[in-house]
């Protein structure tokens, strides 16, 4: 009888810990969904403002205005703030920066509704969702250790950023087109990599005990949601550059 009671207690602990990991994983995707909703609403609302096109893009050169550059690079600054201030910022402060980031990125993305047909935007969004979902499933279920690919993927991301900055001055459509294929490949792989990493973070929270669950797990969920959100948005934008129909 004592042995049965001991086994029952162990099974109860296992179920409870398993629920902690699943709850963390669910919270990550919940916050990602919140970010996507906020960005979508901000993009649609911004696009409805009269004269917003001329404020974001010069009507003669179609290049970003000062406001256009601010809305483009401000989200990057907020991402850096979230990463650098993770230990210092409270959960509410981190969440506030996350929502502000989602809003500003939505404002920045509103320009795609100016230059691309709505049908192609919706089609690329659905395609990105399909790719993201498949890779997220593979990342969660695979037994292959994807951590060894992390440095390679990070080098690829840095390369894309540098190439994009250089191409801002060159203005080559061919270079942009080629980079888009690399971008889809890199962020598709990053999706599986990040999902597996998030799964391991959830298991690590279980091992850390209730103190970890009560303090840092909520903030970790926000940062994990940010990673997945960036993966999805980049897949969507690169697909749009390849297949999007311009107005």
From TrEMBL:
<feature type="transmembrane region" description="Helical">
    <location>
        <begin position="66"/>
        <end position="86"/>
    </location>
</feature>
<feature type="transmembrane region" description="Helical">
    <location>
        <begin position="24"/>
        <end position="46"/>
    </location>
</feature>
<keyword id="KW-1133">Transmembrane helix</keyword>
<comment type="similarity">
    <text>Belongs to the BI1 family.</text>
</comment>
<protein>
    <submittedName>
        <fullName>Bax inhibitor-1/YccA family protein</fullName>
    </submittedName>
</protein>
<feature type="transmembrane region" description="Helical">
    <location>
        <begin position="93"/>
        <end position="114"/>
    </location>
</feature>
<dbReference type="Pfam" id="PF01027">
    <property type="entry name" value="Bax1-I"/>
</dbReference>
<feature type="transmembrane region" description="Helical">
    <location>
        <begin position="152"/>
        <end position="171"/>
    </location>
</feature>
<dbReference type="InterPro" id="IPR006214">
    <property type="entry name" value="Bax_inhibitor_1-related"/>
</dbReference>
<feature type="transmembrane region" description="Helical">
    <location>
        <begin position="220"/>
        <end position="243"/>
    </location>
</feature>
<feature type="transmembrane region" description="Helical">
    <location>
        <begin position="120"/>
        <end position="140"/>
    </location>
</feature>
<keyword id="KW-0472">Membrane</keyword>
<keyword id="KW-0812">Transmembrane</keyword>
């Amino acid at each position: 009888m004592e042995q049965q009671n001991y086994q029952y207690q162990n099974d109860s602990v296992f179920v409870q810990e398993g629920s902690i990991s699943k709850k963390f994983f669910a919270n990550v995707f919940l916050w990602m969904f919140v970010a996507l909703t906020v960005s979508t609403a901000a993009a649609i609302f911004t696009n409805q403002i009269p004269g917003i096109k001329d404020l974001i893009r010069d009507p003669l050169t179609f290049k970003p205005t000062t406001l256009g550059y601010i809305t483009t690079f401000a989200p990057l600054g907020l991402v850096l703030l979230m990463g650098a201030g993770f230990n210092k910022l409270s959960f509410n402060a981190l969440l506030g920066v996350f929502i502000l980031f989602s809003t500003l990125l939505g404002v920045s993305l509103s320009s795609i509704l100016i230059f691309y047909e709505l049908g192609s935007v919706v089609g690329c969004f659905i395609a990105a969702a399909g790719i993201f979902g498949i890779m997220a499933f593979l990342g969660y279920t695979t037994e292959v250790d994807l951590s060894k690919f992390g440095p390679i993927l990070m080098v690829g991301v840095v390369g894309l950023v540098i190439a994009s900055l250089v191409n801002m001055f060159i203005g080559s459509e061919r270079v942009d087109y080629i980079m888009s294929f690399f971008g889809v490949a890199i962020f598709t792989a990053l999706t599986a990599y990040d999902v597996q990493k998030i799964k391991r973070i959830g298991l690590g929270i279980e091992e850390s005990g209730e103190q970890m669950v009560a303090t840092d797990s909520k903030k970790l969920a926000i940062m994990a949601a940010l990673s997945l959100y960036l993966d999805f948005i980049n897949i969507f934008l690169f697909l749009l550059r390849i297949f999007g129909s311009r107005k």
